[in-house]
Amino acid sequence: MKVFSASALALLGTFLSIPTSGFAQQKKSPDTIRPPQLVRTTIRHEQHRLAYGGTVTISGAPDGSIKIEGWPRNEVDITAEIQLRADTEQDLDRLAVVNGFVIDDDVNHLRVLSTGTHDKAFMRAVAKKFPKTLLGLPWKIDYRIRVPAATDLEINAGRGAIDVAGVEGNIRVSAAESETNLTLSGGTLVATIATGKVNLGIPARTWRGVGADIRVAMGEVTVGLPPGFNGDIDAEILRSGKIEDLYGGLEPREKPGITPQNMKARAGAGGAFFRFTVGDGTIYIKKQTADSKP
Prior knowledge:
The structure is a single chain. This protein is mainly β. The protein has a domain at 36-159. It has helices at residues 6-15, 89-98, 120-126, and strands at 38-49, 55-59, 66-71, 75-86, 100-105, 109-115, 139-148, 152-159, 162-165, 170-183, 186-201, 208-225, 231-245, 250-252, 262-267, 273-287. Strand 5 (100-105) and strand 6 (109-115) form a beta hairpin. It is globular.
């Protein structure tokens, strides 16, 4: 299992605090852990009403993917695939009691909160005598969630893919390690990733909202803009790496203009503001076509 470098986590701290402390105890050297012999996978499905303009908060498991898409209904549809690993059926039964998720909802805010052995406070509250030998076993939840198109989102994840499409609202994404794919055309987006990639695809020529602020400590940011896009773009490499302008339609907006490590540019007539920051890595600005992926 990958261990993040001190420099990556220190750089991430300059961006935004990500609640990764609960995930840390899952990291152990693969040389000291024998893989569990049994795997149990369960599917859990729930639906909850949520008015348009409401908020959905997802607190992910230490490992697992999160996929969210907007739809025209005023309800949230949640499908979760929970995978547990242990050496005996009895141990799997014990883990199933604590590893999962709970729903906390009111009229305009629904929270999907992953619970389990990664959360020390939770374990002290509900399972003080839980066998210590089971605390470090790998497990994950893969979420597939549909929300009303006009919804605010807050996603806090550990390690795993994140996909968001068709949602317009205030969206905040944070993760320790992820390949994050975003297909959006409006709202306010703030995304912070410690290690990995962020792919932002914008299908519309004009962004309906304030804009986006995407930050990656170590990795890549790829932005796909459609032909004729209107917006203002700031991009910066803080330490090592480069910015590659593959779009071809950007003009310098102010000094220093467009350089390999700093960009202050305008697309079309300008408009919503986009900021892309990478500590160590690459920022790609390219053309988004109908058949291209974000």
